[in-house]
Amino acid sequence: MMQLHQDEEQFLESDTKIVVIGPEKAGKFDSYWKEHNLKFIGIPDPEKSVLALFGQEVNLFKLGRMPAQMLVDKEGTLRHIHYGHSMKDIPDNKEILGLIDKL
């Protein structure tokens, strides 16, 4: 999330909204958002149901959900998805912004 936060202005300049869905309960999610002054949208998903719809992997040996990044266009069509195998396997913002430019 902090990686997205660092380049939030570039995403906004690309007419892109960032939405983060996480497994925490609403209170913990809200506290994190306030503590880090995050301006993009955060949706708590403690039941782990939202991203299950997109097939996000849960790996108990790696302590939870694996990262997933998705690009959805303005018509609501899923245009790109990246399933990470660890928290180190997250595309950098330049790569994501490049994909956005191609949409």
Spatial order of the strands forming the largest sheet: 1-2
Helix content: 25-40%
Number of folding domains?
1
The CATH class designation is Alpha Beta
Strand tally: 6
- What order do the helices and strands follow? HHEHEEEEEH
Q: What is the overall shape?
A: globular
The fold-level CATH name is Glutaredoxin
Biggest sheet character: 2 strands, parallel
Strand content: 15-25%
Low-pLDDT sequence parts: none
Number of alpha- plus pi-helical segments: 4
User: What is the mean pLDDT?
Assistant: 85
Q: Which structural class do the helices and strands define?
A: alpha+beta
CATH homology superfamily: Glutaredoxin
* Terminal CA distance: 22 Å
Task: Using the CA coordinates, give the radius of gyration.
Answer: 14 Å
CATH architecture label: 3-Layer(aba) Sandwich
Folded structure, characterized:
- The protein has one domain (2-102): Glutaredoxin.
- 30% of the residues lie in helices and 22% in strands.
- The longest helix has 10 residues, at 26-35.
- The chain has helices at residues 2-6, 8-13, 26-35, 93-102; strands at residues 19-22, 41-44, 58-59, 64-65, 68-72, 78-83.
- It contains 4 helices and 6 strands; from the N terminus they run H-H-E-H-E-E-E-E-E-H.
- The chain is α+β, with helices and mostly antiparallel strands.
- The two termini are 22 Å apart.
- Strands 1-2 form a two-stranded parallel sheet. The protein has a two-stranded antiparallel ribbon with strand order 3-4. Strands 5-6 form a two-stranded antiparallel sheet.
